[in-house]
């Protein structure tokens, strides 16, 4: 295990199949229910991640709940965090949790081991306001890059493990505030007389360092924070709103087929830098771990819903006579599907922390 690197390896076909089906999980968001939405192929469900020099154990629900006995695991972030949280619930659903959630926080309680699985929505993980600020108008999302999102920070002392997901919302229209000064914006800037000093990529890196430093210096947080690295999308030939497509992808890509995504690469780089900077500032007893899935998942262009986003029997799933693809989702992940691997990695990280053994590089 001393040579085990969880994040470099290859995808291998596994006849065993997934840990659940789309019909066995009642909390699966319809847009990620690819089989329920009519996707005709299923091979994408059977590929397992094989790290170099070791194996990633198949998720054991009973063992996981024992590891998390009396503890709370929180997924915090955007819709990709929801995707991962629902995958975790689908894997564990045979234990039949009780829903104790409310509008602020989804909570699922597993009575057998007093384990709680939580999800809190936080698009950017930093403080957001729509109130007018200096020359930024009311209604525009304004991100205070040096302040964590207070919506979830008040709950942090209750959590034993936190899994963070962020990044994709930095492509949306917003203004960036640092040290109480507007320094940049995405898809918004008043005029050329002012210098736009921070772009969305730089803003993301700052936000990562801010939230991780806040957790690593929190006086009442002693838990384990797992930062899931930037989740690659696979829009080819355009973006989500300009004709990008992953239609027809049914197997993991070969190395020669991977389309280099400059945005994914630079977002990943800024995230890793932010993680490393925060690591140096940690003063409490909490632990930070980077779950670096970006490279491994660059191969999984087959794992997205694509055009199978709804159960509508009349939806268009193929290109038209001019080659134009139908509307599709090449960002989120089918369930079951590759996203379940994230939770196998989460379990392995938790196991190593609680039981000892070689931990992932961080």
UniProtKB/TrEMBL annotation:
Its main location: membrane. The keyword Membrane applies. GO terms for cellular component: Golgi apparatus; membrane. It is a single-pass membrane protein. GO terms for molecular function: O-acetyltransferase activity. Keywords: Membrane, Signal-anchor, Transmembrane, Transmembrane helix. Belongs to the PC-esterase family. TBL subfamily. This is Trichome birefringence-like N-terminal domain-containing protein. It comes from Daucus carota subsp. sativus (Carrot).
């Amino acid at each position: 295990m001393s040579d085990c690197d969880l994040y470099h390896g290859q995808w291998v076909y596994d006849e065993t199949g997934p840990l659940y089906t789309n019909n066995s999980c009642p909390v699966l968001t319809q847009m990620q229910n690819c089989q329920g939405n009519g996707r005709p192929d299923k091979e994408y469900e059977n590929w397992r991640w094989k790290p170099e020099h070791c194996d990633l154990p198949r998720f054991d629900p009973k063992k996981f709940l024992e590891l998390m006995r009396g503890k709370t695991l929180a997924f915090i972030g955007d819709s990709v965090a929801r995707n991962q949280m629902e995958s975790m619930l689908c894997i564990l659903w045979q234990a039949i949790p009780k829903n104790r959630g409310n509008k602020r926080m989804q909570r699922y309680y597993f009575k057998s081991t007093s384990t709680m699985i939580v999800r809190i929505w936080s698009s950017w993980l930093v403080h957001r306001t729509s109130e007018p600020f200096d020359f930024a108008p009311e209604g525009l999302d304004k991100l205070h890059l040096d302040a964590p999102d207070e919506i979830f920070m008040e709950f942090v002392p209750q959590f034993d493990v936190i899994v963070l997901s962020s990044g994709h919302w930095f492509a949306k229209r917003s203004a960036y505030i640092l040290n109480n000064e507007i320094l940049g914006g995405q898809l918004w800037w008043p005029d050329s007389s002012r210098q736009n000093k921070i772009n969305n990529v730089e803003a993301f890196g700052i936000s990562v360092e801010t939230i991780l430093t806040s957790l690593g210096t929190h006086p009442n947080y002693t838990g384990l924070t797992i930062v899931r690295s930037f989740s690659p999308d696979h829009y080819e030939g355009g973006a989500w709103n300009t004709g990008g497509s992953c239609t027809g992808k049914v197997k993991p890509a070969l190395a020669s087929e991977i389309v280099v995504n400059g945005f994914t690469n630079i977002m990943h780089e800024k995230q890793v830098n932010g993680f490393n900077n925060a690591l140096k500032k940690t003063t409490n007893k909490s632990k930070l771990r980077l779950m670096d899935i970006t490279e491994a998942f660059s191969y999984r262009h087959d794992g997205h819903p694509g055009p199978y986003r709804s159960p509508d029997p009349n939806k268009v799933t193929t290109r038209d006579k001019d080659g134009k693809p139908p509307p599709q989702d090449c960002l989120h992940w089918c369930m079951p599907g590759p996203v379940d691997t994230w939770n196998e990695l989460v379990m392995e990280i938790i196991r190593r922390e609680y039981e000892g053994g070689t931990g992932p590089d961080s």
